[in-house]
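Dear Dr. L.,

I hope this message finds you well. Following up on our conversation about the binding site, I have prepared a predicted three-dimensional model of the protein together with calcium ion. For your records, I am including the exact sequence and ligand specification that went into the calculation, followed by the structure tokens. Please feel free to forward this to your student if that is useful.
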Amino acid sequence: MRLLLIEDEDGIAKRIERALTGAGYLVERSSDGEDGWFRGDSENFDAVILDLGLPQLDGLQILKRWRRADRHMPVLILTARGSWMERVEGIDAGADDYLPKPFQMEELLARLRALLRRAAGSADSVLRTGSVTLDTRQMTVTVDGAAIDFSQLEFRLLSYLMHHRGRVISQLELTEHVYGEDIERDSNAVEVLIARVRRKLGVDLIKTRRGFGYTIPADERLALDAED
Ligand code: CA
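The resulting structure of the complex is given below.
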């Protein structure tokens, strides 16, 4: 896997580069916007890690230019802490994911793995984690090949968690994505729904991160550690 890292701050760039190289990726680095844009435009990368604040040409402009030119490689943007405007603009410009600074390298690696998996699996509508499969087109769930009867809400919840494997999802976010606007924000409906989905699956797939939310670990071995 070949990655392009566009980051002007030398210290951060070196740390990222070291982590990526350690994780087995081939990393090309660019430290200014014009050069970074050109490389992403003229070479093929499996994914790009793009800082937004860059000299010459800022990250948003780079991303917009690539997308206009039909360059569709997955792009993970690095945003300033707490800058929700940057995140919104980045996503609107075609970013596939974002990571606010400062971040843990482990999280960067996890998000990258997820992006690459998504990009690679775009032809396959079936998401798999260990013995659990979720068919996003047929809207079906199986465990060890056996179909499980899921309601629409249960499916929506599991689907959201499966699509965001490796990320801890807050109860509020789940509520918004599963129920939409028509429910009290402090309702405990998600907790009840999670319990039902866990019971139906019968495997320890959905983890609780106390105080943060719920997650299906990106690593399948971790996801199903209760099985063996
Ligand atoms: Ca910067």
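In brief: The domain at 126-223 is CATH 1.10.10.10 (Arc Repressor Mutant, subunit A).

With kind regards,
A. P.
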